[in-house]
Amino acid sequence: MSAVPDILPARHGHALLLAGIILVGLNLRPALSSISPVLEDIRLTLGLSAVTAGWLTTLPVFCLGLFAPLAPLLARRIGPERGILVALAVLAGGMLLRTRFGIPGLFAGTVIAGAGIGIAGVLLPGIVKRNFPAQADLMTGVYTMALCAGAALAAGFTVPLAQYFGSWRPAIASWALLAVLAALLWLPQVRHAHTLNSQAQVPARLWREPLAWQVTLFMGLQSSTAYIVFGWLPSILQARGLTPLAAGGWMSVSVMMQLITSLGGPWLARRARDQRGPIVLMLTLTAAGLFGCLYAPATQLPLWAVVLGLGQGGNFSLALSLLVLRTRNATTAAQLSGMAQGLGYTLAALGPLTIGMVREWSGSWQATGPLLALIVLGALIAGLAAGRDRKIGHD
């Protein structure tokens, strides 16, 4: 009889933690995907050049890598739970700042929001590994679904919000409310915060692990295609003849399709002999979707947007799954997460930046096709190496 009261609070605590993880995940992409649908309005309002406006799509990704090393420092000093609460507060403040003080506020807020996302994104995989060790693959899928849903919501609703308010500023600022809501739901986790001293930095042995570098490269290169889509897909679709509202809507549909494979990817990863087959499948879908959006007849754009979303949802969920599947414990998972996301996102930021430059120099989105092919090929090579059934770290 006495066991029942002990079980119920534990189940309640896990349910609350799961809800918190989902809501935190929902917040880790709107700051990125809310900009591109209204990028042209921002550019015209503030008098930005095309290259300067392009930095708005690239800078947040650089920040994900730049600020990722702060995550293990916070985990050591205040615990990952409190670290996520701090990250949510930073994220909300950055999204609000983007709408104030003109161009300086826009770019400063973008940097601050990117810092919050980078910190929270590194801390969450370690919490998943620690609290749900037997369901780590399923939880990774749920977390990835939340990321995709947040990106889709921002991509699909920012333009209607801008039309409702009559300006892009309140439209992008409104996503700060979602971060505040997540912080409130996350507060109960702070009472049970853990500090993880061994997470203070990525250990030297991890830098010498070829497998850690393979996971990092796969994380970075597949993320590069994702942030190219977040930054430039609406512009590509508008160049193909769609209205801004339709372009944002189809980007939202594409990201919503990621929900299917973001849960299915980890399921395949766990049940396959290793992860190479699922990685090849998802990268093939991604390549087909990208080239379909660039070169296929305009009437087929909805089809290729769906294919692209299916591939990218699987790519990202598989990359996150590798952080769990290639390690033996929560500490090593957090350390690998810091390395893979810190370096990986820095590498990923070069994708949208370079694509924007090629578009500016050539005057054509179709000219970016060879560069996209190289990025996908690099992701395939890294993924085939990282997908083998091996582990790093020690029990």
From TrEMBL:
Residue intervals passing through the bilayer: 49-71, 83-101, 107-128, 140-165, 171-190, 211-233, 245-267, 279-297, 303-324, 336-355, 367-387
Superkingdom of origin organism: Bacteria
Gene3D superfamilies found in the cross-reference section: MFS general substrate transporter like domains
Molecular-function GO terms, alphabetical: transmembrane transporter activity
A cellular component annotation (GO) from this entry: membrane
Keyword Thylakoid tagged: no
Keywords: Membrane, Transmembrane, Transmembrane helix
Pfam families membership: MFS_1 (PF07690)
Keyword Membrane appears in the UniProt entry: yes
Protein name: Cyanate MFS transporter
